[in-house]
Specification:
The chain is mainly α. The chain has 18 helices and 2 strands. The chain is globular, with a radius of gyration of 21 Å.
């Protein structure tokens, strides 16, 4: 059929597709305020890499499995979960301890390897969450917007995509953090390439380990990152739904042991909403908080300092 005989259709929005492709690699290429009508709609073109990462996990059917691959995936889950909870959350978003500029950058980069965007975007949205928790302005409230939007939908929309610079003047003054935020695919791509190279190297020098480049790429990058995604997102979705409310906060945050184990301590979310100004989220010794133990270790090694403790008046109200 000739082009002239085609039924009339809306022109392909080529420019928008190109703009989207550009935003995949350069998030600074689009600073315009989203049109209010579009702001809450899922930007499917923008969401393709996120969906693709899930599909790539099916690669396990072709690459098989080895203990080496599972170990690398578990290790990368643990290191990156710590970077997200200790640094993206407790340091960048809440400033609950201090550190040097090199350590700040190192853990910002490890956090960026989680494919949860840069530290500035993450902290800006998280500060907005605390300010408006469980009200309509809170983009990932399961009460205001439903479970799926709180879990994955919100960050695939135009309004979820943008960084609110007004929320993070303290962080935006570091050019190296602005760079990480703008080119937020660079670190993940480097990790993927490094995993492939490591797998190929091991296949040659240690064939007994039974791994290779494709296997480490699928397990170490795709599977580990997708599990890390959904573990992190449970704090936005499930930790505002299931668990115990020790403190009568204005939001519906909950304390949940299972989520705390999965996210290295973030499941004590009602504690955290009641008093976000401490580096610790388990307020009692039995409230397991691996991120806090990791931060204590880093403080003992002199890498971080001034960890803000839980104040006595908060502990007194946490007696039960
Ligand atoms: Zn919350
Ligand atoms: Zn928080």
């Amino acid at each position: 059929m000739s082009a002239s005989a085609s039924p009339p259709q809306a022109p392909v929005p080529a420019r928008r597709v190109l703009a989207t492709l550009r935003r995949w690699v350069d998030t600074g290429s689009d600073t315009a305020e989203p049109d209010p009508a579009e702001a809450r709609r899922i930007d499917w073109a923008r969401a393709l890499p996120f969906l693709g990462m899930h599909l790539a996990c099916l690669g396990v059917l072709w690459v098989g499995v080895s203990w080496t691959a599972v170990l690398v995936a578990a290790l990368l889950y643990a290191v990156r979960m710590f970077a997200i909870t200790a640094f993206y959350h407790r340091y960048f978003s809440h400033r609950t301890f201090r550190t040097s500029r090199p350590v700040q950058f190192l853990f910002a980069a490890i956090g960026a390897a989680s494919v949860q965007r840069g530290p500035l975007w993450w902290a800006a949205h998280h500060r907005n969450h605390h300010r408006h928790a469980d009200r309509p302005e809170d983009l990932h409230s399961p009460h205001a917007h439903g479970f799926w939007r709180s879990h994955v939908g919100w960050f695939l929309t135009r309004e979820g995509f943008r960084t609110d610079w007004a929320r993070i003047p303290d962080l935006a003054r570091y050019p190296e953090l602005r760079w990480l935020d703008r080119f937020d695919t660079v670190v993940p791509l480097l990790l993927a390439v490094a995993l492939f190279a490591l797998g190929e190297l091991l296949a040659r020098v240690a064939p007994a380990l039974g791994t290779d480049g494709w296997q480490l790429l699928v397990w170490g990058f795709f599977v580990s990152t997708v599990v890390l995604f959904h573990a992190t997102f449970t704090i936005n979705s499930l930790a505002h739904r299931f668990g115990r409310r020790r403190f009568p906060t204005r939001d519906d945050s909950r304390n949940n042991l299972w989520l705390a184990l999965l996210t290295f301590g973030e499941g004590w979310h009602n504690n955290h909403h009641f008093f976000p100004g401490t580096a610790r989220q388990g307020f009692h010794w039995w409230e397991i908080d691996p991120t806090w133990y990791g931060l204590r270790l880093m403080a003992a090694l002199g890498l971080v300092h001034d960890l803000k403790p839980v104040p006595a008046w908060v502990l007194a109200r946490a007696e039960d």
